[in-house]
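From the methods appendix. Each design record in this collection lists the tokenized structure first, followed by the designed amino acid sequence. Records were kept in a plain field format so they could be parsed without special tools. The example shown here is representative of the layout used throughout.

RECORD:
FOLD TOKENS (539 positions):
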């Protein structure tokens, strides 16, 4: 308020207050008009607390109007002395006490005035003297733009006319410190109000507040994955945020498909290398991303093993090949291949067998192959080298006599024998007739046997020959022969022929005897000639 205002107030009062006679009746308007200034520079002490006390009655008057309409405040102020209920009387001594505080000091001052009812207003001025300089708090921090988890150094920069004896820091996150120069770490981003309250050696207290902005830490994106099936991949979010949490995920699987799940699964159509991209957003809106290449191989997740035969095992005859498979998904079948032959389905899957007749291949080294199939892809091919050794039985033939040939007496049976494994391995050739006892022939690759047919009945018989190669007998060679030991003359049985001749001779002898008898009888008769002639007639 300016001096001009004060003048106006006086003008108004002068206009409103009628002329009165003598005290003790106070005028209709009766005020103390006061002002307060600071010591030294004389500037108005606006905002000081005005306390008005009647020293005679110890009563305090509250009807005070200060600058800007605020009560009980100094600068310019009015004290209404018309409140008779408070017992102000002519001649009472009134004390005006004003205390004030600005940024630098505490101020205080007082003055007294004696109520004079003969005037409508009285003027009192109070000069405030400095009673104590309050401290001036100040501080700064480094780094100037801190983030979550940064170590922030707070430095006290307060000043005082005396000395500062204590500090209290309130960091705005519920924590405090009583150090002069504390350090502090904020565990989350945000805006915090830092209060520094200092106290000087006169126990004056002052507080300074500043706002500090803690910057959000961006999240870190990361993920792992497991190939749970040949083409199906389970992705696991491994991201983190030091001062928050990830709240959004965005995946690109590298094959055109995407997901917003945190831990998605994805099935790929084809094997290959895929760049999988993950972008995350934290609860403060910051993003991070990462890309991993994943390799999907056809053959890496299904295996087949051959457990029998072991490598370089010598095999013969029919063997059961064995093995097993390992896969997360069901195996549909196991195939077996011998050398460059066709794939053949084995029996069983997890544990499989395959019956192999080794005689189907030549003696020597052979490679067995196995593969498993899950309906989608084949396993890598397992293989094992084996050695097959199967004896080949000898083979033989009878070259003489011919089939159904008739033989008699001592007949030489001839033939040959041979062995694929070497003719020298043939130990002997045996022969028998009609499943009788075996007899050993002379020789091997070329052999002879003297068959005495006289012990056989005439007729058809079966010759059987076999060869032995030291390991096994050959298959038998059969030959049907006809034995005929009868004597013949010109193709006829000798006995028959001779018998016939003997019969004829005997008949003729008998006939001669008869003739002779007849002739003798004729001669004995009367007519010797007659007898003879009759006998001739008979002949
Ligand atoms: Ca001080
Ligand atoms: Ca964050
Ligand atoms: Ca945060
Ligand atoms: Ca042999």
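DESIGN:
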């Amino acid at each position: 308020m300016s001096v001009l205002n004060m003048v106006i107030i006086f003008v108004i009062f002068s206009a409103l207050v009628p002329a009165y006679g003598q005290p003790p009746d106070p005028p209709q308007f009766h005020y103390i008009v006061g002002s307060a200034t600071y010591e030294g520079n004389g500037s108005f002490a606006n905002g000081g607390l005005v306390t008005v006390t009647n020293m005679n009655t110890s009563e305090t008057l509250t009807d005070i109007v200060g600058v800007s309409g605020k009560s009980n405040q100094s600068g310019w102020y009015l004290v209404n002395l018309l409140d008779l209920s408070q017992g102000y009387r002519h001649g009472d001594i009134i004390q005006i006490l004003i205390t004030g505080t600005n940024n630098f000091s505490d101020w205080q001052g007082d003055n007294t005035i004696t109520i004079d009812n003969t005037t409508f207003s009285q003027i009192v001025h109070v000069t405030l003297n400095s009673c104590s300089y309050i401290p001036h708090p100040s501080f700064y921090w480094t780094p100037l733009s801190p983030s979550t988890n940064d170590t922030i150094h707070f430095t006290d920069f307060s000043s005082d006319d005396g000395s500062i004896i204590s500090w209290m820091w309130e960091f705005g996150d519920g924590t405090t410190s009583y150090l002069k120069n504390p350090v502090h770490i904020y565990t989350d981003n945000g805006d915090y109000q830092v209060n520094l309250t200092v106290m000087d050696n006169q126990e004056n207290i002052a507080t300074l507040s500043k706002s500090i902005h803690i910057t959000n830490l961006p999240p870190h994106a990361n993920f792992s994955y497991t190939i749970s099936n040949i083409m199906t991949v389970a992705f696991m979010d491994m991201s983190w945020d030091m001062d928050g949490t990830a709240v959004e995920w965005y995946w690109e699987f590298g094959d055109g498909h995407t997901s917003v799940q945190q831990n998605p699964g994805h099935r790929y159509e084809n094997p290959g290398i895929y760049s999988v991209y993950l972008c995350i957003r934290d609860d403060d809106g910051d993003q991070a991303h990462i890309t991993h290449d994943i390799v999907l191989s056809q053959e890496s997740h299904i295996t087949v093993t051959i457990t029998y035969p072991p490598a370089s095992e010598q095999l013969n005859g029919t063997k059961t090949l064995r093995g097993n498979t390992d896969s997360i998904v069901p195996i549909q079948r196991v195939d077996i291949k011998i050398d460059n032959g066709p794939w053949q389905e084995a029996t069983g899957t997890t544990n499989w067998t395959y019956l192999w007749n080794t005689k189907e291949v030549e003696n020597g080294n052979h490679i067995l192959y196995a593969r498993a199939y899950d309906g989608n892809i084949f396993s890598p091919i397992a293989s094992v080298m084996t050695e097959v050794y199967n004896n080949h039985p000898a083979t033989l033939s009878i070259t003489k006599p011919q089939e159904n040939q008739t033989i008699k007496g001592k007949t030489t049976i001839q033939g040959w024998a041979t062995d694929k494994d070497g003719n020298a391995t043939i130990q002997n050739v045996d022969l028998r007739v009609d499943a009788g006892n075996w007899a050993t022939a002379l020789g091997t690759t070329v052999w002879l046997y003297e068959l005495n047919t006289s012990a056989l009945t005439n007729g058809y018989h079966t010759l059987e020959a076999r060869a032995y190669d030291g390991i096994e007998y050959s298959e038998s060679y059969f030959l049907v022969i006809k034995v005929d030991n009868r004597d013949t003359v010109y193709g006829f049985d000798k006995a028959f022929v001779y018998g016939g001749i003997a019969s004829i001779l005997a008949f003729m002898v008998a006939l001669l005897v008869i003739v002779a008898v007849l002739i003798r009888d004729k001669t004995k008769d009367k007519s010797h000639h007659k007898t003879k002639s009759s006998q001739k007639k008979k002949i």
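APPENDIX NOTE: The chain has three helices and 40 strands.
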